[in-house]
Design goal:
It is a single chain. 41% of the residues lie in helices and 18% in strands. The protein is α+β, with helices and mostly antiparallel strands. It is globular and about 90 Å long. The structure holds a DNA duplex.
DNA sequence: GCGGACTGCTTACCT
DNA sequence: ACAGGTAAGCAGTCCGCG
């Protein structure tokens, strides 16, 4: 097909239309129909890749049921179009079983299954038994035949029916089926060794990887740094390096946001019913397109708000026309970003269009159970991505706390939602336009900021995990890790074990957790030495657990391996042993990722001699690696992980305890006082350069792991509580860990007082400075106390506790915590609440002693409760400073007993 | 009927 | 749907108290 038609079909920035907005809106449906015709008749949808396609990024893959083939979406960065490439290799879905074809032929339901194709005999390596096994590959015509949702799929038929037809009454070995739950397009990706996120060409109809010389040179440079690594690891380092060094494209994308006018202002309209009209849609494109599409309605006033001059406002006489205009956008962008589009915007648009009787092929959206995908491009739902705990904590350092457009926008791009005083239906056109446009703008900026960080992060994670970008952005870190593990199993012709087989063979855990209900013992926390300490060096193991997995060869294969000769290679503090003969896959994969991050990407991301764009790219990569590495140990202890293996997690933690204990002993032997330590760190009091060097060298030599000086505190303040301290760095910045004063649920009033103390402490340089600082802190606390007593606060909201509702309201049956009491009062008032909502309440004199802020008044506040809170918040720091809260607020020792 | 000792529940944090 | 360890506050229970 000709390039030209495709370009026309996509209608990006091209021709700015001179026709006035109104006229254009009227012309819209005609234009759209023309486009549909064009697509259908001339060039057809899907936009098939031509016989020869220039280098393009593999961004997505799916199974196309109609075509009965895997479909790969390629993003061509010059034309900025998506091209579809359908499998033409004849690859088919399959699973494995330990039954022979002879035995399988007796199973009637299998042989007569409409989706059954044929058998093949294969030799695979079984990592659990550490030997080669013969298995039968059952090949099917379509993926649903293997493991569809309906009853009677092949993976269920075999264990159900074989025992009935077997001539031997009791089978010696259980009937087993393997690899039947792998998504077909993932299976295809692994088997064909395709690398999502990487660059491909179509040559004479075939999909072939494109070699980029510049990136290859970088890979070679990188490999020089790792010359010393064992050859076994080199293979993996190079493989990862290629995935990470290849560049990212410039993306073309649009952020969209819709507003729906419902009759009840407080209630979110149900997207499945789509009962109310879509009244406004905003589009903010990376090609400069900024549009607000408004539905004309009776009795709505124009309004006086002003939008930026480059925003085009378009009015529509009918909602149908408006929908068609939005759909045109969704048909044309390779990437569409939303905030909660899976559950709202795209779902609503689809059902609304269906209510109007749109034909299926006129709607550009594919609605799934939990997701909404696009027929042409990719839909990235930022809500799902930012909701991911690993992303929130490790990629964005907890900079946003609530996963709302307002909070994420404020924290990452400094833009907040426009506050609404009325319902959507009561806004003037310009108020509505402004509100809706801002949402699209925040969504856009969240995608564009820091050089398209989010899309590039998704791209890098897609490469590491061999997943389509859409899946990566919606799924958790355990899926990412599982998928690259699966990929390597297939690459090495390993049978992918069933979770129940790993568990049955390797069993549960041997240690006892400190916390009731946990599966095994975790890390050590050292009892802190209370007081103020000057010149504190914090030393830690960079990525301790991944290092342990690497150095100790941990993995489900190697822990409790079948070789008798390995049984002496014991894991400290456990009765378990680890394999000496063969490297575990996890150890190789996680170990090489760790080395790459520590020895290459972390340094490159700080290398000022590199151009800023490259540095930022390296920073994105090291951030992606950080996210994966941080979870790489935990997944083995997570029942939901497909390679769940509790003894592996337990071993990792046990070796960690062993390592830190040895460091502490050695430090003390060297005459260094250990003030505190947690999991992978030790806090050393005023150590000399020599002492530090000796400790580093000893650790490297004895434990085969690096111990680094992470930071040096000018001084640190410890109470007697673990996971609670304050440290002032050389540059005057302050680390506050675990103290109540930084917890997000405490009232702003108390938090502000705490922050003023923190700022004062940051100014202290010498022990002598302390005396002055103490006086100021005493004054601050007294001041705070009297303001409370006199009820002199700026607003009631300063006194609100903000606690997240962890469960649905009805599910608090064992106890009724205070925030739940407040939430129930709110519910009485008709406010809808669900799990995850933040409840703001104040403490009041009368039963039940709590009230939602918005319902409370100044005089019913229980001031003494707040004084008590102030007390406990400051106590954590005051006792180390030798101060006493009660004395500060002027109570004599005697008065305290009264 | 009430207060203290205790356990358990819940949330937010640390590594 | 990555893990375990810690702090804090409150809810609820049990028991003693002539």
């Amino acid at each position: 097909m000709a390039q030209k038609t495709l370009d026309e079909f996509s209608m990006p920035k091209a021709k700015p239309k001179e026709i006035p907005a109104e006229a254009k809106a009227e012309a819209m449906p005609m234009l759209f129909t023309e486009k549909v015709e064009e697509r259908k008749k001339q060039q057809g949808f899907p936009p098939l890749a031509p016989e020869n396609l220039p280098p393009s990024y593999f961004v997505s893959a799916t199974y196309d049921g109609k075509a009965g083939k895997v479909l790969i979406k390629l993003y061509e960065p010059d034309s900025q179009q998506i091209y579809f490439w359908y499998d033409n290799t004849g690859h088919k879905p399959y699973c494995y079983t330990n039954l022979s074809p002879y035995e399988l032929e007796k199973i009637d339901r299998l042989m007569k299954h409409s989706g059954f194709d044929h058998f093949e005999i294969e030799e695979k390596f079984d990592p659990l038994s550490d030997r080669t096994v013969k298995v039968t590959k059952i090949v099917a015509k379509d993926p649903l035949a293997i493991g569809g949702r309906k009853k009677g799929c092949i993976r269920d038929i075999i264990p159900e029916d074989f025992p009935k037809v077997s001539e031997i009454p009791v089978a010696n070995e259980a009937v087993k089926v393997w690899e039947s739950r792998i998504k077909y397009y993932q299976s295809y990706i692994y088997d064909r060794r395709l690398l999502p996120g990487m660059v491909y060409e179509v040559k004479n109809g075939a999909l072939v990887p494109k070699r980029l010389e510049e990136a290859e040179k970088n890979v070679q440079k990188l490999m020089q740094v790792f010359q010393e690594s064992p050859s076994e690891e080199l293979e993996y380092i190079e493989q990862w390096a290629r995935l990470l060094e290849y560049p990212a494209p410039k993306f073309r994308y649009a952020a969209i946001d819709i507003e729906v006018c419902s009759s009840i202002a407080t209630r979110m309209p149900d997207p499945r019913e789509a009962a109310y009209p879509v009244v406004c849609v905003s589009v903010y494109g990376s090609d400069g397109q900024k549009r607000v599409l408004l539905l004309k309605r009776e009795g709505v006033r124009e309004g006086t708000e002003h939008l930026p001059a480059d925003v085009k406002i378009e009015y529509f006489d009918s909602e149908e026309e408006l929908l068609r205009a939005v759909f045109e956008v969704l048909w044309s962008y390779p990437f569409v970003v939303t905030f909660n589009g899976d559950d709202f915007d795209l779902r609503y648009l689809t059902h609304r269009a269906e209510n109007y009787g749109f034909r299926r092929d006129e709607i550009p959206i594919e609605v799934g159970k939990r997701v909404c995908l696009l027929k042409y491009g990719l839909h990235i739902d930022l809500y799902k991505f930012f909701f991911n705990r690993s992303i929130q904590i490790y990629a964005f350092n907890n900079r946003y706390r609530d996963v709302t457009l307002d909070d994420v926008g404020r924290a990452l791009v400094g833009l907040e939602k426009i506050p609404l005083e009325k319902g959507i239906g009561d806004l003037t056109y310009t108020e509505l336009a402004k509100y809706c446009f801002r949402d699209a703008e925040i969504t856009y900026k969240l995608t564009s900021f820091e050089d398209e960080l989010v899309l590039k992060l998704v791209l890098v994670l897609a490469r590491i995990s061999s997943m389509p970008m859409e899946d990566v952005s919606r799924q958790g870190v355990s899926r990412w890790i599982r998928n690259f593990m699966h990929r390597e199993h297939r690459r090495r012709n390993f049978l992918i074990p069933n979770a129940e087989d790993i568990l049955a063979l390797k069993g549960k855990t041997a240690t006892k957790a400190i916390i009731k209900g946990k599966k095994y013992k975790g890390a050590i926390v050292v009892e802190p030495v209370p007081g103020v300490h000057f010149n504190v060096a914090v030393m830690d193991f960079p990525s301790l657990y991944p290092s342990i997995i690497k150095v100790w060869n941990l993995g489900y294969q190697s822990v409790l391996c079948p070789h008798p000769e390995c049984r002496t290679n014991l894991i400290p503090d456990t009765p378990n042993w680890v394999c000496k003969k063969k490297r575990a896959l996890e150890s190789l994969l996680i170990g090489s990722l760790r080395d790459l991050r520590v020895q290459w990407y972390k340094t490159k991301s700080k290398d000022k001699s590199l151009p800023p764009e490259l540095r930022s790219w390296y920073n994105i990569i090291q951030g992606a690696l950080k996210v994966i590495l941080n979870a790489s140990y935990g997944v083995f202890g997570a029942e939901t992980f497909d390679l769940y293996c509790p003894p592996v997690a337990e071993a990792t933690a046990a070796i960690g305890r062993h390592a830190i204990t040895q460091i502490i002993n050695m430090a003390e032997k060297l005459g260094i006082q250990v003030l505190y330590g947690d999991t992978d760190s030790v806090f050393l009091k005023n150590p000399s350069k020599d002492q530090i060097r000796e400790l580093e060298e000893w650790t490297e030599h004895e434990l085969k792991m690096g111990l680094d000086v992470d930071k040096i505190y000018r001084y640190a303040v410890f109470s007697s509580r673990k996971k609670n301290y304050l440290g002032v760095l050389e540059d005057g910045s302050v680390d506050v860990k675990g103290l109540t004063g930084k917890k997000r649920h405490i009232p702003l009033f108390i938090k502000k007082a705490f922050n003023r103390m923190k700022e004062r402490l940051a100014m202290v340089k010498t022990p002598a400075d302390f005396e002055e600082a103490k006086k100021d802190i005493v004054k601050e606390i007294r001041d705070c106390y009297t303001r409370l007593k006199r009820r002199e606060w700026e607003s009631l909201s300063e006194l609100a506790f903000n606690v997240v509702l962890g469960e649905e309201l009805e599910r608090y049956t064992k106890t009724t915590p205070q925030h739940v009491k407040a939430a129930r009062i709110l519910k009485e008032e008709g406010v809808e609440l669900k799990a995850g909502d933040l409840i703001s309440f104040v403490k009041v004199i009368n039963e039940p002693h709590v009230k939602p802020v918005e319902l409370a008044t100044k005089n019913e506040i229980d001031v003494d409760k707040y004084v008590a809170y102030l007390h406990s918040t400051f106590d954590q720091v005051l006792d180390a400073l030798g101060l006493d809260f009660d004395e500060i607020i002027g109570l004599t020792k005697l008065e305290r007993f009264m």
